[in-house]
Each structure stands twice: as C-alpha cells, then as structure tokens.
Write a structure and sequence with these properties.
Elements lengths: L3 E3 L3 E7 L1 E2 L2 E2 L4 E7 L5 E5 L13 E7 L4 E10 L4 E10 L4
Parallel strand pairs: 1-9
Antiparallel strand pairs: 2-7, 3-4, 5-6, 5-8, 8-9
C-alpha cells in the first residue's frame, strides 16, 4: 500500500506550484500538518519550509513521524500562485 510509513521515519513532504504547467513561485507558501492526535503544525517559507537552491516553484518540509495513525497535510500558495497541494498518509507501529 502506498503512503504508509513506519513510526520513527523521517519523510519529505513536497509541493510543486505551477501556472500553465510552468513551475512558478507563489508570493508566500504555508504548510499545515495535522497529526494523529489532531494537533496542527503550521510552517511558512522561508522560516520552516525549504525551496531547493536553483529551483522555482518547488518547496518541501521534512517531517518526523513520531505517532502511529493518520496524518493530513496541506501546502498553500498565495499571491502569484494561488493553489493548494493536499495529501494524507498513514504511519504504522513497528514492533520488533
């Protein structure tokens, strides 16, 4: 099953913002991550979201998966590119 990770993994959430299929930087980029405990983490570029050097329209945030359950996330671009990129994934417990 895709979008299933193990508790303790570090994953990269990525958003690609485009206008007419051309990668374009929004004026501002935000990300909300809601963990299984329903606590929301809120992030913003450039403080806590990264744009790789030499790129346009691509943003990411590395997230440590410290809880078992469902995570929801939503990137939001504002200004020049008004768009969202949302997703969901599951984290399973790893017992050895």
């Amino acid at each position: 099953m895709s979008n299933v990770y193990d508790e303790g993994d570090l994953i990269r959430l990525t958003a690609r913002f485009t206008i007419s299929s051309e990668l374009t930087d929004p004026s501002a980029v935000y990300l909300q991550v809601i963990g299984p405990d329903r606590v929301t983490g809120t992030y913003a570029y450039p403080a806590t979201i990264t744009r790789p050097a030499g790129t346009t329209g691509i943003y990411y945030r590395d997230v440590s998966l410290d809880q078992m359950g469902r995570y929801d996330y939503n990137f939001q671009g504002t200004g020049t590119v008004q768009a969202t990129a949302a997703g969901r994934f599951l984290v399973r417990r790893t017992d050895f």
